[in-house]
Design goal:
The mean pLDDT is 92. The chain starts with a strand and ends with a strand. The protein is built from 13 helices and 14 strands. It is an alpha+beta fold and 383 residues long.
C-alpha cells in the first residue's frame, strides 16, 4: 500500500481543498448537506471568527498518492477548558474514506498536536463553540441533514470504536409533525398554559415589524444572552461574548423570517425565552453545491421567499432562562410558532440537537406528534 501522509494545511488554496473534500466525499449522497464554502472559510479565518481570540486551531489533510483521503481540525477552546476545568483538545470537521489507517492517522495528528500543548484528553466532533457543527451521526443515516448539523457515513462511529474511543455524550433530534388534521396530538395544552402564564405572571410574546427593529432595539444580545444562561450547564458550553453574537447575527439574520422569531418577555420587559426557526434550506444548499456565487443565491432566495409549498421548518434554537423553565414560558413559544407553521402549510419541524439526558428539554415535545429520527454522539479518550 502507498505511503499515507498527514500534514497541516498551509495557505488559502489548501484550506479551500480542506473544505471541499467533504463535498467530494458526499457528492453522491442524497442525505448530506454541505457547509457553505464562504461561511466555512470565514469560520476558519482568525480575522473573521471571534472565537480565535480564545481558541487555537490547526487543520490537517491526509494524502495517499497525492489524493486527499481525509481531513480533520484540531481545536483548543481555552474558555471552555477553564470553565469546565479540563485539558481537552477537540477534533472537528472530520471526514475520511473507509480506511482505518486514514482515520487513525488523522486522530493521531490531533492527539499529538494537543499533547504538545499540554492537553490530556481528546473529544469530538466539536467545533470552536457550540454554535458550530458538533456530534457524529450514529443513527438516522437515511434522513436528510440540516444546514446546522453533521452528516456522516455509518462507518464513522465504527472506526471510533475500533480506535478505542468511547461515547462521552449523546444528542437526539426529533421530526415533529406541524399540527394538522390527523396530527393534532395534544397541542391545545400549549395554548391553555400560555394563557394561564400570561394572566398569572404577565409574560408576553414580543414580535417585530422588521429586522432593523430587532437590531435597533438591541434584541440580538438579549436573545443570545438567554442562550448563554439557558445552555450554561450543557456539555462543553463556552459563553458567547458580544463579538461572537454580532458574528452569528450577521450569518443567520439574512435567512430569518421575523414571524418565526418568538421572544418571551416579563411584564417589565426582561427577555426570558426565545425560539428561532427558519425554513429548511437543505435542498437549496444541495442544489447550490454549497456556494452562494455565482448562482447559489437563486436557490436560496427561492427556498426562503418564493416556495409556495414549504415542507420542513428547522428549529435552530429554543431556550428559556433556568428560573422560568418551570413557569410555562416555553408554552408561549410553541403557542406563538404553531399557528404560523400551520398557516404556512409546513408539514414537519426538525428540532435542533438536544442532549439525550436533558429531561426537561426532552419533555417539552410530549404534547406534539413527533419521533426521534436522528442520534449523534461525541467520542473521546485520554491521550
Amino acid at each position: 500500500m502507498s505511503e499515507l501522509l498527514v500534514a497541516p494545511v498551509r495557505g488559502r488554496r489548501e484550506l479551500r481543498t480542506f473544505v471541499r473534500f467533504n463535498y467530494e466525499l458526499y457528492k453522491d449522497c442524497p442525505y448530506a448537506v454541505p457547509d457553505f464554502l464562504e461561511d466555512t472559510l470565514d469560520t476558519f479565518n482568525p480575522q473573521k471568527n471571534p472565537a480565535f481570540r480564545f481558541c487555537e486551531a490547526e487543520f490537517f489533510l491526509a494524502r495517499r498518492d497525492g489524493r486527499i483521503v481525509g481531513r480533520v481540525a484540531a481545536i483548543i477552546n481555552r474558555r471552555a477548558n477553564e470553565t469546565w476545568h479540563e485539558k481537552h483538545v477537540r477534533f472537528g470537521w472530520i471526514d475520511f474514506i473507509d480506511d482505518l489507517e486514514v482515520s487513525a492517522a488523522l486522530l493521531h495528528a490531533v492527539e499529538e498536536w494537543g499533547r504538545e500543548r499540554g492537553m490530556t484528553h481528546i473529544v469530538g466532533p466539536l467545533g470552536f463553540t457550540d454554535m458550530d457543527l458538533e456530534g457524529m451521526l450514529t443513527d438516522g443515516y437515511d434522513q436528510l441533514s440540516t444546514m446546522n448539523s453533521i452528516y456522516n457515513y455509518p462507518y464513522y462511529p465504527e472506526h471510533m470504536a475500533r480506535l478505542g474511543y468511547q461515547k462521552e455524550v449523546g444528542w437526539v433530534e426529533r421530526k415533529v409533525a406541524v399540527p394538522r388534521k390527523g396530527h393534532e396530538a395534544n397541542q391545545e395544552k400549549y395554548f391553555k398554559v400560555a394563557e394561564l402564564v400570561k394572566r398569572r405572571y404577565g409574560f408576553r410574546i414580543r414580535k417585530f415589524k422588521s429586522k432593523k427593529e430587532i437590531m435597533r432595539e438591541g434584541y440580538i444580545p438579549k436573545v443570545l444572552g438567554v442562550v448563554n444562561r439557558a445552555y450554561a450547564n450543557l456539555y462543553g458550553y463556552s459563553e458567547m461574548d458580544q463579538a461572537q453574537m454580532e458574528a452569528y447575527a450577521k450569518q443567520y439574520l439574512p435567512f430569518l423570517d421575523k414571524r418565526y422569531l418568538s421572544v418571551v418577555e416579563t411584564a417589565e420587559g426582561e427577555v426570558i425565552g426565545m425560539g428561532i426557526c427558519i425554513t429548511s434550506l437543505s435542498r437549496a444548499i444541495q442544489k447550490a453545491k454549497a456556494k452562494l456565487f455565482p448562482f447559489g443565491w437563486y436557490y436560496m432566495a427561492k427556498a426562503l421567499w418564493f416556495n409556495r409549498h414549504p415542507e420542513t421548518l428547522d428549529m435552530l434554537l429554543v431556550g428559556v432562562l433556568p428560573e422560568y423553565q418551570e413557569k410555562g414560558a416555553n408554552a408561549l413559544i410553541f403557542a406563538d410558532l404553531i399557528p404560523e407553521g400551520t398557516k404556512d402549510g409546513y408539514l414537519w419541524a426538525e428540532t435542533h440537537h438536544q442532549l439525550e439526558d436533558n429531561i426537561p428539554s426532552q419533555a417539552q415535545w410530549k404534547n406534539l406528534d413527533c419521533v426521534i429520527h436522528k442520534r449523534r454522539a461525541a467520542f473521546g479518550k485520554d491521550i
